[in-house]
From TrEMBL:
Regions that span the bilayer: 66-89, 101-125, 137-157
Record keywords, A-Z: Membrane, Transmembrane, Transmembrane helix
Record-linked Pfam families: DUF2165
Protein name: DUF2165 domain-containing protein
Superkingdom classification of source: Bacteria
Length: 165
């Protein structure tokens, strides 16, 4: 196995572990991050501009539904990534064509992770629900770190190998 493949496998496994731990934490300590979702959707710690407050979602049922969707997305992402790691591990000593063909599941998992933090936290929570206005419930910095991690690994894994590699 080449150093490049080992790097791609290790980094994909690291992101898989990250999503596994995030999902585990949200399932075993539901209330901690539920409060985050509740405040962001309610927009109760933003500037409370009347021009934006119509976007607020204050129904607790919808808060639980949104949080359930987030947790489900995290679990799905972790499962895709672990399946991707397994597929890559199985072809680690194969030729470039087999390796390139096996990357799909890992690429889907990394894309799912990037979508959660890019679309979910930066675009929807950050901009639509004006999370950036909150001093107490602003997760943009953390989301950007997770998005960068997923994105860098996605670029690394997505680069096709040639037989010369």
């Amino acid at each position: 196995m080449t150093a490049l493949r080992l790097s791609r496998l290790a980094l994909t496994a690291a992101v898989a572990l990250l999503f596994s731990l995030i999902a585990f934490g949200n399932l075993t300590d539901y209330g901690s991050n539920f409060a985050f979702v509740q405040h962001v959707l309610s927009m109760d710690t933003t500037f409370r501009s009347p021009a934006l407050m119509w976007r607020a979602i204050t129904d607790p049922t919808l808060h639980h539904l949104a949080y359930g969707l987030i947790i489900s997305w995290e679990v799905m992402t972790a499962l895709l990534l672990w399946a991707g790691v397994l597929r890559l591990w199985r072809v680690r000593r194969s030729g470039a064509a087999a390796w390139n063909a096996a990357r799909g599941t890992a690429i889907l998992g990394l894309t799912a992770g990037a979508m959660l933090y890019g679309l979910g936290f930066l675009v929807i929570a950050g901009e639509w629900f004006a999370m950036w206005q909150s001093r107490e419930w602003n997760g943009q910095a953390s989301a950007a770190i997770f998005l960068a991690f997923c994105g860098i690994v996605l670029l690394h894994v997505s680069t096709a190998e040639t037989e010369a590699d």
